[in-house]
Amino acid sequence: MKKVLVATVLIVAAGALVGVAAVPGARAAKPLLDTGGPDRSALLGDVPDAAVRISPADGATGVRPDTPVDVAVLDGRLVAVRLRPVGAVGAPGAGTGPGTGTADTATGSLSADGTRWTSSAALALGTRYEVTATVRSAHGPTTTRSSFTTLTPTARLGPIVSPGDDAVAGVAQVVVVQFRAPVADRAAVERRLAVTSRPSVEGGWRWVSDHEVRWRPRSFWPAHTAVEVDAALEGVDAGGGVWGERNIHVSFRIGDAQVSYVDVRTHKMVVTRDGAPVKTFDQSAGADRYPTQNGTHMVLEKMQKLVMDSATVGIPRNSPDGYLTTTFWNVRISNSGEFVHGAPWSVDSQGRANVSHGCVNLAPADAQWFFNFSRPGDAVVVTGSTRPPSTTDAGTADWNTSWDQWLAGSALR
Length: 413
Known about the structure:
Structural class: mainly beta
Number of helices: 5
Distance between the termini: 54 Å
CATH topology of the largest domain: L,D-transpeptidase catalytic domain-like
Number of strands: 28
Largest sheet: 5 strands, mixed
Mean pLDDT: 87
CATH superfamily of the largest domain: L,D-transpeptidase catalytic domain-like
Strand content: 35-45%
Shape: elongated
CATH class of the largest domain: Mainly Beta
Helix content: 10-25%
Strand order of the largest sheet: 22-21-20-28-23
CATH architecture of the largest domain: Beta Barrel
């Protein structure tokens, strides 16, 4: 439109000059070649310069990372906008560094009329940014530059998601998001967390502390489910001066439905895959004084060799029940000292009596088979014990909490 306006003005001016030359007796017009044409600056004298407004303002400090960068122009059109991090706060020279993101131009969207550009992603923490806007108006192209600095947080969330990317987990697996710094605004953080799956399943989040939130399906995962976890925490205000600094995406899948059933009363352990029995073992669970926890356990990890120390579960080594023993083929099913493991010393009791300190004892060959069979997230269901499951232990709390109680642990309900 501006080019059309200029062309129109030039055409009118030329016509006026011709008209004057045609009047008889009038002073001859000065040839156009003597002047090189009409004075462009004079013709545009009433056309305003393009006005550019950049927000945050030039020199601003302590800018929140969730603040959108906005570039607007009056009497012109934006032809290029560049928003880039040029260095971490306090770092010598320009460039990238921890928390600065990349040196690439940040993404944004331009309005249909070309008069406004708005950034579309969170800013990095503790980083100086430079904004360069090139505008074209009737007066030609002009460039405006501005810079600002984002706030440096008291602490960063530092999230860790498990299971990790490409993991294969059991049907009892829960999604765990742990934070390096405490979360004061749980709702703000939870809104940025999502779990999706194929096939879709019902599930929900539950906070177990200011440093950890867990997602569980209502029932065990269907075998071979594909799971996606998104933690879009970049630029989120977690409260108390703690901010999220990055986004995380994790994909994992569920393997076969492997569920083992330990009956404390019959001293048997039945291992199933996809609902069908695979093996039945004689076992010895916790003695009356140290009963195994009842309820559904989740396999947490496997260790081929482990030194078991009674002092770690509150039993002095020098007491009659104390021990310091090396065990093999250990499958952890709780954080309170319960394993399914090889126990050659109790083979005579396996299938007949419960003599352990809470573990599920198997013959060495049986334990080795179960070790190789198991994966984190498999379920081990214990029945017939007098000891209720812990509501704080990672191996037992998740699946022994009622669904209503689980959902009540969400910050969004």
